[in-house]
């Protein structure tokens, strides 16, 4: 009798939990799982729009083979942008971490400064950001003013990194605009560190530089990793991402295959970043031990 009562209570608890997650689960199936599955289905078919609806002709992996082995357009757009991402991600992380440490100081109007750094995240998104850059507002203009482009050409020569570096410097304002969320995350992480740790370090005679390397940076490691993942995903879905423009073609099957290839590249890149971060973190722990 008690076992039956326990099973009924457990069933009621499971049903209650299912009711709570039902809205999220329904939204996930309708707005994410189904579109993903449908795009994967279309990537293996030739899709034609006819008056009666849509016609699907099985095409196998032809689109994947064409993109990966028979077309250079994908690589011509992917490789330069990939180089930009490799440069932009550490710059955004370092800038965000430094600004978060400054905003955590007991300064007058610090709440105003926090709002100022976060406002671009709200206003400069999507179409609005595109219009800003098209009107020349996203460029600092110092490359032309100080002839820095010529120095870069001399220094980098014919290197494949020359154009990504110049593009990044031309759009350096975008780095500031895309650091708001990271600054808030770092700020929240900085506030989790107990003030007593800094007081003990000052009593022991530690310099600010030693405090940063021995206390602040190790305690911020989980937040650095979180911001690293967020920034990588954010950069790969950047409004000026040339791959996204390639995906937006009228050929539904080809576009779906291209989107899935791009998705797998992002996943592989995230896995590489995860492995490198874990190895560096493990190395720091061993050196401390």
TrEMBL record:
It comes from Neobacillus kokaensis. The keyword Thylakoid does not apply. Coiled coil: none annotated. It is a multi-pass membrane protein. Pfam families: BPD_transp_1. Belongs to the binding-protein-dependent transport system permease family. It comes from the Bacteria. Residues 78-280 form the ABC transmembrane type-1 domain. The keyword Transcription does not apply. It is found in: Cell membrane. CDD domains: TM_PBP2. The chain crosses the membrane at residues 21-44, 85-104, 111-130, 168-190, 211-233, 253-278. Keywords: Cell membrane, Membrane, Transmembrane, Transmembrane helix, Transport. The lineage of its organism: Bacteria, Bacillati, Bacillota, Bacilli, Bacillales. This is ABC transporter permease.
